[in-house]
Amino acid sequence: MQTTVRDWYVIKIFDDNNGRVGQLLWGFIVDDPRGRFSPGHYVCTSLIEEISKNVIFTIKGSQYVTEGPGKEFDALFSEIELLRRGYSPKQVTRLRNNTDIIKTIDFS
Description:
It is a single chain. By secondary structure, the protein is α/β, with parallel strands linked by helices. It has helices at 80-84, 89-96, 99-104, and strands at 3-14, 20-31, 42-52, 55-58, 63-66, 71-76. The model has no long low-confidence stretch (mean pLDDT 90).
């Protein structure tokens, strides 16, 4: 079964030395036959293993069908927690411009 996403991004993850760590998928749920996610909610996946046309496969065995055009977003490893908590790539970009906000977010 494949989960369908829209308004999606391939997030390229970089460490502090600008080395590429991996990539993941971030987007909004259209349909999830397995019932893990509700339509309209966001998803931030595990690392991407393969991208084949409009299907993205993760290292944990999930498959995501992408609907419409996607975008790429470069993120630091330290920003991944923001994406996992529901911040969009656009919001992460805005937070980068105000590092004081990032310092006050409690990740516990």
